[in-house]
Each structure stands twice: as C-alpha cells, then as structure tokens.
Design a protein that fits this description.
The protein is built from seven helices and eight strands, in the order E-E-E-H-E-H-E-E-H-H-E-H-E-H-H. It is an alpha/beta fold. The longest helix is centred in the middle third of the chain and has 13 residues.
C-alpha cells in the first residue's frame, strides 16, 4: 500500500509526547479557511511512499524517539487514506514504536484505529454541527460521537479547539463547548487544549494560488482567551498547554 505525504519532519512535544517524526498526509475532507497547510487539502499531489518505505524511515529514526517519542500521523486528514494508515499503524505497533494520530474525527470508521494508536489527538472546531458545516464544509456530529467512543475505550483523547474570532471564541461559544464536553464526559477522561488563530498559512495560500479569506476579526486577544478559559473552568472544564 502507498501513502501520500506533503511534508515530514521532527517535532518535540507539540504533536504527541516526546520527540517525534511527524508525517503530514495529503488530502482533507474539510475546507477550513484558517488552515495552516493548504497544500495538503487536495487529495491529489504530494509524494507517494510505500508503507514499507515509511516503516524503514521510522526505524531509522528510532534513536531520536526520546522522552516517549515515536511516529505521529497528521494532515491534511489522516483518515482520508484509511486502509494504508491502518496498515502502517499496525506494523509500527508490531515493532514497538509509539504511535499518534491527529484527526478531525469525522471518519465513521475511526474507532477501528483506536487499538493501533497510543496517543489520540482530536480536533473539535465547534459545538454546533450546522455552524461547523457552514464554515468548514461538513457537519462534525460524527466527531462528537468518536470523542465519546474514544473516552469509552479508555483512550484519554487530547482534544483541541482552534479558537477563531467570529466563529467559536465568544463566551457564549465557551458555554456551548462546556455543555458538549460535559455531556460526553471529557473532564477526567481526556484533555482540552486551546489553539489560538495564527496566520502561518497565509503565504502558503498565495503560493498555492488560493484566496486567503481570513481577516483581523479572527485574531484572539489575551483578554478573549482569558474569558473563554474562565467560562470553561467555571463549568468544570480545565485546559492544558502543550
């Protein structure tokens, strides 16, 4: 089987524990206008590697997997290449290499990967599936269900909210997220991290010939972040920093 990548490289602690080789997989099932990797949105493109080539690459990096490190698959969206990803993760586990994926949680078969993943990162961009659909192109109701299933499977998912002004960063939004996470029993069974909007992808959009539609409204002030965090805390939801 083959896997298409648009980027790979090492990262420490930001994409799972320890020092990790991070593979960015080509293709995504969303069209988030703030995406920092627009070159990975299209299903075509990227560089094709066989699973065997990537296994050899990961093996060659073993000595760099310090502090609990290993291999992280991110995107794009990793589940867009589901069969090959499943095969790759299974063979990594057989070799005793720590595995992590970062996913938007939309794939209905995501729970099939739980036994192959040591550390699960899941994005949750909005608590309202319809508002999520209007901005990103798809409902995220399946994401809620998959976070719940991950919790029930004891995976202790690391949930992340990309905070975007004008989309999901008001005090009302914080209440919406708090209700959702309490309903699916995230407190005590997973972690929550807030990632504030940045413009790292802006130049990439220009290089890809794509319009960058984000405005200054999307920026998150320290005061906004503090209020959002406070509302979550008042409703039993604490946040972490990676």
């Amino acid at each position: 089987m083959d896997i298409r990548l648009f980027q790979k490289g090492f990262n420490f602690s930001q994409d799972g524990p320890g020092n990790r080789i991070v593979y960015h997989l080509q293709g995504c099932n969303l069209a988030c206008p703030w995406c920092s990797n627009p070159e990975g949105l299209a299903c075509s493109g990227g560089t094709t590697y066989s699973v065997e080539q990537l296994l050899a690459d990961a093996e060659s990096c073993r000595m760099m997997f310090f502090d609990g490190g290993g291999v992280t698959l991110t995107g794009g969206e990793v589940t867009m290449q589901f069969a090959a990803v499943s095969d790759f993760l299974r063979q990594l586990k057989e070799r005793g290499i720590h595995t992590c994926i970062e996913t938007n949680g939309l794939h209905p078969r995501l729970p099939e990967l739980f036994e192959l993943v040591d550390y699960l990162i899941m994005d949750c961009k909005h608590y309202d599936p319809e508002k999520h659909r209007l901005i990103t192109g798809a409902s995220n109701a399946t994401t809620f269900q998959n976070i719940k299933l991950a919790i029930e499977a004891g995976k202790h998912p690391a949930v992340r909210i990309p905070l975007i002004g004008g989309f999901n960063a008001s005090e009302e939004d914080a209440l919406g997220f708090a209700r959702l996470f309490n309903e699916i029993h995230l407190p005590g069974n997973g972690t929550l991290e807030l990632l504030t909007y940045h413009e790292y992808g802006k130049e990439k959009y220009e290089k890809c010939g794509l319009p960058y539609t984000m405005t200054d409204e999307a920026k998150i002030s320290p005061e906004m972040l503090q209020r959002f965090t406070a509302v979550l805390h008042e409703n039993g939801i604490d946040t972490i920093r990676s």
